[in-house]
Every structure is written in structure tokens, then in C-alpha cells.
Design brief:
The chain is mainly α. The chain has twelve helices and no strands. InterPro entries: TLC-dom, TLCD.
Length: 240
């Protein structure tokens, strides 16, 4: 007989009990998910329809992009403080590096008004975050790792993470290579040029590292799901 997860009147206790504690990991993930959806959806609109930055990715009018970058920067700063304040609970050096690198890059977009399209392109990576956070929600609610919901989310998390954070790497560096030596690139100045490339390298190294971990986890979950499915089929066959 297939096991089915059924919510009970107390199913949310794992979430609500932590939501009102001095430190609420639940609350931070809710905010993280909301942030990623807002900047991700707005980022997609800019990516497809913002004519100014599409026409000139390096120097196009950054007005609309600045709003999205400012929202993301505000979230990163608040999350950075939470990471430091509750270091013993959720501290992670890679998140610190990620947040500081992103904020450093965003500074030039907000202050100098350059690389708006590139900055927005990097923000699209946030569209993978809701699936990453959903994994924690499933665990907090004691979903079996072999449940269909858990497996489907794992597959989607892996696929979206790959598309948004890994598959986007070659086009980005191909574009960087294509503008090297151009007048628009020279106008950026050495500091912004180095900051642009170095921040991208740092973020992409971490994305590749996380992609490897996520892929291994996804393969493991799919394997467990198949084993459980085979076990149930065998068990049902014996019952018949």
C-alpha cells in the first residue's frame, strides 16, 4: 500500500513554533522566497522588455534596473546582518562571500549607473531560490524524502538552478569577451572592469560548487524514490 502524507490539525506546528521563536529560520526563508520571486519576475520583465538596457547593456539607462537592484541589495544587507547575528545557528562563510560580492557589484550599478543589464541578468539566478527554500519547508513538515512532492521539487530545483545559474555562464563570458577593447568597455575604467569580471568569477565558482552538491542530492533522492517504488511493487505483489 502506498504511503500518503496527510496533513493533520497539527501539521504546521513545526513551522509555527519556530516562526515565533527569538530566531525564526522559517521567517527568513519566507522573506527569502518573497524576495526571489519579486526580483526574479521583475528581472525577467527587464530582460525581455527594457529597451534601454537591451540596446546598451553597459551604459543603457539603468532607472528601472536600479529599483530591482536596490530591493535586492536591501534584502542582502538584512540577511547579512541575520547571518552574523545568528552565526552559531545559520552562519555560513559561503553565504557571507556571496552576499558581500553581490553587494560590491551592485554598488557600481547603483552609484555609477553602469552594467545595468548585466546586473539584472545576474539577478535572474534568484528564480532558483524558491525551490531551494521549499526543500526546507518539506523537511520541517516531515515530508518523506521518497514522497512525490519532495522528489518533484528536487528535480525542479536542480533543473532551474542549472538553467539560471550554470547554463547562463557561457553566454555571459562570451559577451564579456565580445566587448573587450571596445570604446564602451574602456569608458568603464579599470576599477569597474576588474570588479565586474572578478565578482562574476567568484559568484560563478560558488554556483558551480552548489550545483554539484544539488545534483548529487537530486540523484540520491531519485535513487531512493525508485528503490521505494520497487519495494512497494514487490510488497503489493506478495499481498496479491
Amino acid at each position: 500500500v502506498e504511503e500518503i502524507w496527510i496533513p493533520t490539525p497539527h501539521w504546521s506546528s513545526a513551522l509555527l513554533s519556530s516562526a515565533f521563536s527569538p530566531f525564526s529560520f522559517f521567517s527568513t526563508l519566507v522573506v527569502s522566497t518573497c524576495h526571489s520571486l519579486v526580483v526574479g519576475v521583475v528581472g525577467l520583465y527587464i530582460f525581455w522588455f527594457d529597451e534601454a538596457t537591451i540596446a546598451d547593456p553597459l551604459w543603457g539607462d539603468p532607472s528601472f534596473v536600479k529599483v530591482n537592484i536596490a530591493v535586492s541589495s536591501s534584502y542582502l544587507i538584512s540577511d547579512l546582518f541575520i547571518l552574523i547575528l545568528y552565526w552559531k545557528v545559520i552562519g555560513d562563510k559561503y553565504y557571507i562571500i556571496h552576499h558581500c560580492t553581490a553587494l560590491y557589484a551592485y554598488y557600481f550599478i547603483l552609484s555609477e549607473g553602469v552594467l545595468a543589464y548585466i546586473g539584472n541578468f545576474r539577478l535572474l539566478a534568484e528564480l532558483s531560490t524558491p525551490f531551494v527554500n521549499q526543500r526546507w519547508f518539506f523537511e520541517a513538515l516531515s515530508y518523506p524524502r521518497v514522497s512525490k512532492a519532495y522528489v518533484i521539487n528536487g528535480v525542479l530545483m536542480t533543473a532551474v538552478f542549472f538553467v539560471m545559474r550554470i547554463a547562463s555562464i557561457p553566454p555571459l563570458y562570451a559577451y564579456i569577451y565580445s566587448v573587450l577593447g571596445t570604446e564602451a568597455y574602456r569608458r568603464l575604467g579599470a576599477l569597474i572592469q576588474c570588479s565586474w569580471i572578478s565578482s562574476c568569477v567568484v559568484l560563478d565558482v560558488m554556483n558551480v560548487m552548489w550545483m554539484v552538491k544539488i545534483s548529487k542530492g537530486c540523484i540520491k533522492v531519485i535513487s531512493l524514490f525508485r528503490q521505494e517504488k520497487a519495494r512497494r511493487s514487490l510488497q503489493n505483489g506478495k499481498l496479491d
